[in-house]
Design goal:
79 residues, mainly alpha, 67% helix
Length: 79
């Protein structure tokens, strides 16, 4: 179910949002929603280049595997 939120922005940001929304033929609300989803996808997931860098580092892969084992056993903590 959709939720409605209020967002306070200064005039400079509003004008920038308006320009970008119009360029994509979107409402400001839809532009903000789409831009936010893109941002969250970008920070939540590893892209192919970052994954290649991770998988090409055997020491890091071993540490990640050990971290997953420790987490599944309730050892350690997230910081």
């Amino acid at each position: 179910m959709s939720k409605t939120i209020s967002l306070r922005v200064d005039n400079t940001l509003y004008q920038s949002l308006k320009i970008h929304a119009e360029a994509e033929n979107r409402s400001i609300s839809n532009f903000i929603e789409t831009a936010t989803k893109r941002y969250l996808d970008e920070i939540d997931y590893v892209d192919e280049f970052e994954m290649e860098s991770i998988s090409g580092n055997p020491e890091l892969v071993d540490r990640l595997k050990q971290g997953a084992i420790d987490a599944s056993k309730g050892r350690g903590r997230f910081v």
